[in-house]
Amino acid sequence: MQSGDNVIANQHETNDFINIWLLLRRNLLVIFLLVVGAVSATAFYMSTIPDQYRSDAQMVLALTETRFSESTGQLETYELNRSSVETELARLRSRDFAEQVADRLGLFDDPSFVRRAPGADSEADEEIHRAAVTDKVLASYSVSRAGESLAISIEGRSTSPVLAAALPNTVIAVYIANERDARVNRLMTSIDNLKRRVGILGEELTQAESNLAEFIREDNLDDEQVVTRLRAEVERRKAQLRIGIERNLPEDEILALQEQLVTSEQELEARTRLELSLLRREREVELLRTRYQTTIDNLTLLETRIGQLEDGTIQVSKARIPVEPYAPSRSLITVLAGLFAMIVGFIIALVREGLDRTVRSENQIFRMTGLSNLGYIARQRRSKMFAGENKAIENLLQSQKSPLAEAARGILTNCIKFQHSKVILITSGLPNEGKSFVSSVLATSAAVDGLNALLIDLDTHRRGATKTFIPDMDEVQLSEIYSDSVTLQHALTTETKGSLDLISAASPTHELSDAASNKLKQLKETLLDQYDIIIVDTPPALVMDEVYRNDILADAVLLVARWGKTPQHALQAAAKRLQSSGFNVLGTILNDVDPKKYRWTTYEGYYGTYDDY
To answer: What is the torsional sign of CA 388, 390, 393, 399?
Structure first.
């Protein structure tokens, strides 16, 4: 068993859902037109956009490259690093590279790719055209790299499937060709540098060998017996000096022998230094000879590589012509446009409801006027003017259980049984609220239920109630309300339990004298002796003041408002004026309610069975 709080919460949730549903139902046409318009416009626009195709290809950069180093004079191997790969990616995205791709594909002369401006023949115009083609080529392919790998993916996009496949293949072909040309150029540059270096080293080697030969000739370094003789001479001088000392030769002879020994040792030492210098020069010559030979070997290797040069970068996958376009997704975009239009439509519906100041519910009526709504009159089908009202009266006569009959019976029961009102004045705040139709329905319903009813049409300007029963105005007999007698006309041609008579006023009730009031009072007493209920149809309360001159006739007043049409302020003003004039305003009647848009009103009313109207 639910508690009271739970029941109230559930009612609030249900009411919120109902309010949202009613909001959508009332604005369904606006939302539908907005969605249809958005979907149609989007579909038309998408039909003007050509299909886009894409295809991709992959290439793998060379891991290493051999180059001649100017600093070391040797061939060195360079490995690609992150910065090198990023440099290559930047080169692939450069304008110069895009121009090469455009040249390879012949896009500068292809009018289907970028159309030339008419009469553009100057050099400046040609530059502008080439710039436009280059920009479009750059926008037609993209370059990407997966992680730190050397694999580069090229994606081509175009409205032509053939061009979409040709773009990535051409990008890779141009890059490989450029790389091969660059490698060939670097090799040729290295070969030229090595040739120049061979020449320089050859000259240095020749000069060094010439100097060495001259050095050998000048110092007789090619005679290997010289050193032996000098050493023997030193040993001989030493022996002589030792013998002279042992024999105690004179001092002058000893000194002479010592001088001869010193001279021999100096000659030997000078010869030794020359030989050491010779060895040093020979090593220099040998080093030059080695460098010369190494350079020749490198030159031979590079010249051999020219004929055996292979592509460092290779294409591992080839772009193929796509069969189906990848964009635009017309159905998805159209659906999204429809959903967006629905959201916009819902927002517009909220704005419209927020700005709507017309009467739509009994809660609004009670909040504005303090009056209760006594009944709802469902909208009638209309094929021509007044045909709907006449058809409704015929249906009311034929079916006493129709929704219209039940609504009228409920209003009359409230007025007669609970309010003890027999003379009911029907009015509205503004014209075209349906008060004459409501008056006719109430009067007819009373006659169908067995009451003797009288309908007094005081709306002399339109005579809507009179035309409902007597379409031909030539057959209408007009009456002066202030005369001693009035003319009664039978309003119904169909037999009913009760009767329905009609009095159509000839002129407005404009007299304000006591005599006129007495005549109206006597007329009311006379008519109440003959009829069980009297329905008085008057002009709108805010347009004509005649309604206020008939307060003597009326026991009660019912104020008619048209659902979704009557401004709230007009209904509020009419209720206040009637109440301040001393009228007994029982309540309101909400007329012309659309059951499909107002299926739920409040917990008091449910119009699900009114769909046949």
So the answer is: negative
* Exposed/middle/buried for residue 244 (C-beta within 10 Å: 0-12, 13-18, 19+): middle
How far apart (Å, rounded) are the C-alpha atoms in residues 229 and 550? 169
- Taking 80 as the threshold, does the pLDDT of residue 91 lie above it? yes
Give residue 137's pLDDT.
Answer: 94
What is the spatial distance between Cα 305 and Cα 130, in angstroms, rounded to a whole number? 38
Q: Cα(301)–Cα(307) distance, rounded to whole angstroms?
A: 11
∠ CA 202-205-209, nearest 5°, is 140
DSSP codes of every residue in 469-523: H---GGG--EE-TTSS----EE--SS--SSEEEEEEESS-----SHHHHHHHHHH
Q: What is the mean pLDDT of the chain?
A: 83
Give the count of beta carbons closer than 10 Å to the beta carbon of residue 459: 27
CA atoms within 13 A on the CB side of 88: 26
Confidence at 509, pLDDT banded by 50, 70, 90: low
Partners of 154 in the beta sheet?
Answer: 57, 143
* Tens digit of each residue's pLDDT (9 = 90 or more) over 37-79: 999 999 999 889 999 999 999 999 876 666 656 555 555 666 7
Which phi-psi region, left, alpha or beta, contains residue 277 (left: φ > 0; alpha: ψ -120 to 50)? alpha
Question: Residue 227 above 60 pLDDT?
Answer: yes
Positive or negative CA dihedral for 443, 444, 445, 451? positive
149 vs 7, more confident: 149
Q: How far is CA 166 from CA 57, 154, 163, in A?
A: 10, 11, 5
Q: Give, for 221, the enclosing helix (H) or strand (E).
A: none
